[in-house]
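Data card: per-record layout.
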Amino acid sequence: MPLTNRLMVLGTIFIALASAGLSLEAIAAPPPINISAMNDDNYASSKGFWGFTDGINRSSALLGDMWGLRTDLSKHGISLAILETSEYMGNVNGGVKQSAAYDGLTQIVAQMDTNRAFGHYGGLANVSVLNLHGNNLSAQNLYTLQTASGIVGDQATRLWEIWYDQKFLDEDRLSVRVGQQSLDQEFMVSTNALYFINTMFGWPMLPSANMPSGGPAYPLSALGVRFNVRPVDGFNLLVGAFNGDPVKNNNGSDPQLQNRYGTSFPTNGGQLYIAEAQFSYPTLGSMVEPGQTKSLGYTYKIGAWYNTNNFSNMAVDTNGLSLADPNSNGNPLQHQGNYAWYAVADQLIWRDDKDPNRTVGIFGRVMGTPLKAYNLIDFSANIGAVMHSPFKNRPADTLGLGVGYAHVSNQVAQLDQNTANFTNTFTSIRNSETFVELTYQYQWKPWIQIQPDIQYAMNPGGGLANPNIPNSKIKNELILGIRTNISF
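The structure for this 488-residue chain is written out next.
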């Protein structure tokens, strides 16, 4: 069957599932692990590692108790989670060529509750390992800034996070986490956005493009300490200090290859400071009765980050000449420090009076920086809506529609223009990139979820030239795909 026909079949699958009335937790790139569920007292006996069943006492994990292993581990306060995410995605049109690719991610997470293990209250130790396999469609075909899949990366088996979290004060109002951490598991996160597949619904576009090595986010991480304080119910303050670059002695090459196995723990990469204030309702311990539609929950977050590393000017050299000027020395002007602000909102806007599982939530996230001369991306945004239980008798399914936007700084556009002027050749002037994603999470069995997905990317790369077609930009791209999430 020709490739185009195979890709169109994916679109037919999507439409068929949605029309038929089409759970695991929301899966993004990758999702924060449900710590409270993993450490439930009954976790190892009858439940799967996400801590729920399908209502008739069948495990949500394919291997259930793993022949008694989970029960034995639970006696020592240890919980084990294994999740395999696999995707097949392809672009029907646009891009530098049309083809499809498979990619996958295996996550293994082990956590030890110190209270259950040896009677020390409030401690949690975590270690996680990733195995990335398959190919990167975005790098091969799409050339987009906002990559189509949030799980792709260089093929490797790597240590991801290893940290210890300790709770303090009455009602656990303070927790301190120390160790190798991936910031996208706690900071800048929209809960509703995690249902989508595109990378930028997880770790945002702006730090991905501007921080050294893309920042300490999947599949990288960095040493640091995080404080989470809850002075009153409904308000949390997260503050963290981390190594400013997840790669040691960064030489500008692929950072994942520089730290291929995740076993390098650099401390010489400057500092990254981040703070985030969170406001939420319902507050901890409050109850929302079924049918009480006026009690529509929300979480609002505002935050900022500052990185102390040196950052290169996007347009001019140390003599003030354009980097495109033949007389330029080729050494970009340097600036110490970089920062950005951001805001995140998750808001429930509707709940069915008769079925509390049926809800509609909206989300939005914006991030910007005034240091436009030293950043490829100076503004990024995500918005969208998510409907839970969109069809009758499908309480664990989720339908989502989201949009992502990234703006290329004017200094980068000026460099493109100067390049065109000095060389007198066609040079694409970059500006912005937008994509739309429609996705449906269908829980086929308690341990497997199927997620057909459609994305449409406009002005790929912000307006990159097509290397295969002279004097032409890369055309808009229609991307079809399907993802599976299997709990073992």
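Known properties of this structure: Residues 3-487 form a domain with the Porin fold (CATH 2.40.160.180). The first strand starts at residue 78 and ends at 93.

See the next section for split statistics.
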